[in-house]
Amino acid sequence: MWVFSASGCRWLGAGGSLAVAVGGWFAGTLPVRGGWGLWERHGTAPAVAGALLAYLGLTLLVAAWWRYGVLLGREARAGAAPGRDAGGGPSGDRAAGGRDARGGVLATLVCWTVPLLLAPPLYSADVYSYVAQGAMVLEGHDVYGAGPSVLGPGDLGAEAAASVGGHWTDTPAPYGPAFLLLAAAVVKLTGGAVVPAVLGMRLIALGALALAVWAVRGLGGGPGGRAGALWLAVLNPLFLIHVVGGTHNDGLMTALVLGGVLLATRGRWVLGSVLVGLAVMVKSPAAVALLFIGVVVARRAGGGARALAKGLVLPGAVAGAVAAGATLLAGTGFGWLRTQSVAGSIHTALSVTSDLGLGLGLLLADDPDPVKDAVQKLGLAAALVLIAVLAWRSWRGLLDPVLGLGLSLVALVALSPMVQPWYLLWGTAVVASVAWYGRAGQVLAVLSAALVYETAPSGRTPWYGFAAAALVAALGLLRARREPWRAGAAEDAEPVRAGR
Description:
single chain, 21 helices, 67% helix, globular, disordered C terminus
């Protein structure tokens, strides 16, 4: 059937994306005020109808994306066994479907992205915090000492501050000065008005998308090629919904990391470290990339103790200089060093360590917070150990350093005290860039398809979102067990990169 072809998937996904956007006009994260008559709240019945339409569109988008990946997988298998398809028969028409998908992935990305461009914020109110924090910088407030609630009615960004979600109203910014400079520039150019300011932040997200596409294509995708890497990294509904629709700055951080790693693998590690330094000045978890750039540098320099010392010190020194320069340029001070843990004080149900710590605290103590805090710290310690092991294996030539970075970011997210669905993109995009068609890529694809359901278009996290996510994850992992993607694809990528 046509709908199962690459072209059919493209238009089915575009229809799903359009339904998400239209539903968002009635059920998205609409501003409390300042919607200019465009992004306005319409009451309960339209909101419910809009949410249902958005969920339907999201399901169509996920289905189209998954089918598109199946077509790309056929091409990857055909490449591994020329002349045969996955079932052992002639590749013929089935491989042709994969070639059609491979050739049209960028066109598909455009078709799925365009409907979201003018939509109100979707699935999160974080963009209002970005705008408000940019306004705080311009108004001279200490963005690392107070939250958006300090903005008065006559201040720039006051309308955005009114739409910031609940506990975030009084939370200091956990973001670096480079991102706050971008947010301040958007507020200055738009006068802080909600609609143009949000669209300005979305332009930054689109720039991040373009940078990610360039970097993923440059890294090559490993077995299965660039098209499959783009499929998992940026055609991913989790990326489109939360980076383009929700304008999360995680997209910018991830894109800068990808760009920095690409430059490092091409021998331009200084410029690569500059990009990663800028990524750290968006969100601090990007610092993990410096360790693996160091591994790349050390291996290029011969792999001895002196080379290892060079790799461990120099990329961090370059990124540190970038961080200091960005901080001085922004004039916000070094308060970002003390606000990196503020998000951990907010409980999110996706954090395994927070849930476990809270449960143990309620069972073992009158005050659960100390127990919860201890478990969260143990989780971070475990993540650091895993990262160290992956870096060591990469240095010894047992693992592709880029794949090691991707797996490290996944481990960091899994064991963090605060986890949001879009955090999965940190590691997913990196893994996709070198080993999309392997065991890790398959699991990350399943989790991506599941986590898009966890958050409602309004930004709330209702129980049925968790139920839908759990159902999709269970079905996807069961299918992955029965039909695993080509074993060894992730490992096959390593000798290629080790020789660069």
